[in-house]
Structure formats: C-alpha cells, structure tokens
C-alpha cells in the first residue's frame, strides 16, 4: 500500500481486513479521514496508516457491525459484534480471541435497549441486557419479546449485580431511598436513555409516584456507571445510580444497595449451534473464566451460563 495513493472504501476494507460497512462507520465517526470526489468517497494511504497507528494503542477495537443480515455471519472469518459495557465482556472477548484468532471480535459499548435494537437489525451478534419490568418483576424477557418480534432468541445469564446509589463517603446528605432524591439540596446525575440503570430508575419513580421534575439533575446524563461514580466522587453531584463493582474503585464513595439485577446475554437461537457461540457457552462454564470473574469481586455467578429463557 502506498501512502501517496487514495483508496475506495472497498479497497480500504480489504487492506484493514474488515467489512466495507465498518469502513463507512469509521468515516462517519471521524475515526478515519476521508473526502468526496463527486459522490465517491476516497481515503488516502497516509490516513489509513495513521488509523492503523492509532489502533495499535487501543486494546479492544470497538466498531460498528456491518449492516448485513444475520445469515451473513456464517463463516468464522467474519466479524462478531458483542454489545455491552461491563468489564466482564472484555474478559469474555479475550477468551474468544484465544480460541478464534482469525475472527474479528468487535466490542460496542452501548446500553441495553440499543443493544437489543442492534440485534434486531442485524448489527450485533451478542448483546447484554439488564432491563427490569415492574409489571412482572422480571428482567429482560418482556423487553426481548417486545423489541425482537419474529426473531427467536436465547437469553443466557452472565451474572447478577447489585444496583444502588453512589454517594459521598459517610453519606452526608443521608440518601437511602428513592424519595430522598427529591430533597432540594440533593443533586442527582442520571444515566442515558435506554440503559438498564435508566430503565430501573424511571420504573422506580413511576412506582413511587415521584415526578422527575422534582429531582434536581434528572436531565444531566452520563454514558457509563464509571462516569456517574466519578462525578459523585468529584463532588459534582451528590448521588447517582450504578452497580456496586464500580463503587469499589473509588475510596471516597459509599454504596447504598437497592436492587439486585440479572445481567444476561441475548443471542439469536439460530446462532446457538455455531462454533463461536458453542465456544462462548463453554467459556461461561469453564473454571478459569468463572474464577477470573469471581476474583474481580462484586458479581454473583451462581447462574452463569444457564439458559434463562428461549423467546
């Protein structure tokens, strides 16, 4: 490849050994420089080299999957997209990469609703969900039924996690219940719409009869548990909602447990017998993987690898 030559997205895909649709997504997100000549898109060789150099500094390549149908992932040489934000998924991806070094395992750090929609649209292969339905007191199954109509899926437990409030050390504002968030001196930091934490929060407000307009900071959003915890730890908010594991990383935070959640993997039933997914199921049941997750702390692995439902 010459740095003085420009290339089409199809040629770039062959050079980088990725889908051309991933190339378009990288260009859209300004991660790969490109320009137009009329209606045609071109990428300079120098910009491809720059992208490759940047990529070497990233341990996990988080990219958007190609917009193809699920049946397109029939070869082990194709990419496999795993959606979700928990660190356990990075560990799971590492185990899969060891077994299938020729496969591009791509990570997308998105919330539960966006993950299920990506699976429905054929933009992902494995997604995670922790969506609580207050009408049934059930996790994930009601949402999978609603968001993936006509697409038989399998729900597999990964872990159970504890959701609760992040508060400053010593809990100076005495925040222990949902109603405490309405105190005029309390500043809340929210999660983005579609995340499991946001769904839990909004459901609890509805059940408790609390108006979101009564909560200072309801409209202030962060994209991860870590970002929420960090904001509370820095004193920019008094309370946020997230998982216990993240709170353990901050010495100046206390965690107020509120709700045990089920954190599941969701895949298509038609994929379950394919080598990628059989390997995934074996990893979930392997002592080495389970011990590594246990060593992190903050997770209940008692049902890890168990098929919770076929929807």
At a glance:
The chain has 311 residues and is α/β, with parallel strands linked by helices. The protein has eleven helices and 14 strands.
Architecture blueprint of SSEs:
Elements: E1 6-7, H1 9-16, H2 20-28, E2 35-37, E3 40-44, H3 45-55, E4 80-83, H4 87-99, E5 105-108, H5 112-120, E6 126-129, E7 132-133, E8 138-139, H6 141-147, E9 153-168, E10 188-191, H7 196-208, E11 221-222, H8 225-233, E12 239-243, H9 244-247, E13 253-268, H10 275-285, H11 287-296, E14 307-310
Parallel strand pairs: 4-5, 4-6, 10-11, 10-12
Antiparallel strand pairs: 1-3, 2-3, 6-13, 7-8, 9-12, 9-13, 9-14
Report on this model:
The protein is built from eleven helices and 14 strands. It is an alpha/beta fold and 311 residues long. It folds into three domains: 6-55; 70-159 and 262-310, D-Maltodextrin-Binding Protein, domain 2, CATH 3.40.190; 162-261, Periplasmic binding protein-like II (D-Maltodextrin-Binding Protein, domain 2, 3-Layer(aba) Sandwich), CATH 3.40.190. The protein is globular, with a radius of gyration of 21 Å. The relative contact order is 0.14.
């Amino acid at each position: 490849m010459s740095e003085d030559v420009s290339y089409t997205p199809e040629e770039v895909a062959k050079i980088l050994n990725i889908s051309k649709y991933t190339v378009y997504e990288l260009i859209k997100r300004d991660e790969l420089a490109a320009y137009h000549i009329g209606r045609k898109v071109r990428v300079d060789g120098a910009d491809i080299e720059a992208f490759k150099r940047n990529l070497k500094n990233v341990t996990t390549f988080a990219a958007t999957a190609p917009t193809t149908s699920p049946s397109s992932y029939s070869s082990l040489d194709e990419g496999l997209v795993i959606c979700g934000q928990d660190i356990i998924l990075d560990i799971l991806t590492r185990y899969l990469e060891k077994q299938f070094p020729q496969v591009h395992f791509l990570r997308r750090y998105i919330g539960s609703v966006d993950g299920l929609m990506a699976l429905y649209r054929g933009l992902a292969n494995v997604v995670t969900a922790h969506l609580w339905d207050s009408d049934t007191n059930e996790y994930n199954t009601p949402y999978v039924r609603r968001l993936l109509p006509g697409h038989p899926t399998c729900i597999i437990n990964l872990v159970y996690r504890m959701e609760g409030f992040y508060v400053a050390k010593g809990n100076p504002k005495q925040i222990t219940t949902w109603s405490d968030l309405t105190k005029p001196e309390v500043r809340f930091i929210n999660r983005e719409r579609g995340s499991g934490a946001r769904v839990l929060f909004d459901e609890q407000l509805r059940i408790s009869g609390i108006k979101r307009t009564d909560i200072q900071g309801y409209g202030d959003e962060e994209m991860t548990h870590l970002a929420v915890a960090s904001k509370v730890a820095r004193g920019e908010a008094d309370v946020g909602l997230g998982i216990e594991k993240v709170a353990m990383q901050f010495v100046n935070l206390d965690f107020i447990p509120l709700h045990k959640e089920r954190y599941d993997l969701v895949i298509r039933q038609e994929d379950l017998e394919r080598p990628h997914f059989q390997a995934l199921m074996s990893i979930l049941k392997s002592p080495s993987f389970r011990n590594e997750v246990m060593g992190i702390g903050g997770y209940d692995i008692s049902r890890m690898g168990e098929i919770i439902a076929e929807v």
